[in-house]
Amino acid sequence: MRHAVLFGVAALGLSACSDPKAASEGNFKTAINTYIAQNPPCLSIPRSTERPEGDNPPDFPRYVSAAPTTSEPQAQNRQRERAPFDALVEAGLLKVGETAIKVRTGLWGNQSSDLPVRAYDLTPEGRKAVSQVGERTAFTSPDQRLCYGKPTVDEIVQFTEPADAMGVKVSRVSYRYHLAELPEWAKQPAMLAAFPQLKRDTQSSIDANATVLLTNDGWIHERAFKR
Questions:
Q1: What does the alpha-carbon distance between residue 114 and residue 13 come to, in Å, rounded to a whole number?
Q2: Which residue intervals make up region (Disordered) (predicted)?
């Protein structure tokens, strides 16, 4: 009889582990991993601080003024503008050159003059790494981004008892993860200094929260849910 009871308990445990609708660490880890692995963090490449005259200039090069500065605060501001671009140069994603562009001047912008600038353009490595979000319109241009790493859940810390919310059963999950498969440029000291987000994202362990929803096929991350 004792063996029969033990077998029954083991069978129930195995059933819970294999049930995709069970509220379990394994199912929640799978649900969160499936979503975050396909949505790595990204850095937006800063936009030009100087805009050449004309409509719809190309996405690259990006321009930063190289005109002489006349005060210490102005020089410090110029350095802040250049810092993220120079970090991308050091990482091998951008290259830089000196040139001049025509910019609109005058009280009503009805004149033009030559402005010395540093021109930052993508290297072949940068072109492979960059991705684009958004569409070009008469008023906006796509956001150029550099995505990095593969988010991977290490541990489910805790989760709430599943409860109904707006007709859907949900659970709120706390978990820890890290970024695997980081590209070399994401480890560069200059990049970590210039982009605080990158420094946060490349820690060995990161705490995060997510809400998971129960569907007919099992649990999924709330951001993967389509009504």
A1: 75
A2: 41-82
Q: Give the helix ranges, DSSP H, for the chain.
A: 2-18, 25-36, 72-90, 124-129, 189-194, 196-201
Q: How far is 113 from 111, CA to CA, in rounded Å? A: 7
* Tens digit of each residue's pLDDT (9 = 90 or more) over 78-114: 999 999 999 999 999 999 999 999 887 766 666 778 8
Q: Phi, psi (5° rounding) for residue 30?
A: -65, -45
This prediction's pTM: 0.80
Residue 208 burial (10 A CB sphere; 0-12, 13-18, 19+) = middle
Three-state secondary structure along 121-163?
EECHHHHHHEEEECCCCCCCCCEEEEECCEEEEEEEEEECCCE
Contact between residue 46 and residue 85 where contact means Cβ atoms under 8 Å apart: yes
Residues 6+ apart with CB under 8 A from 123: 92, 93, 94, 95
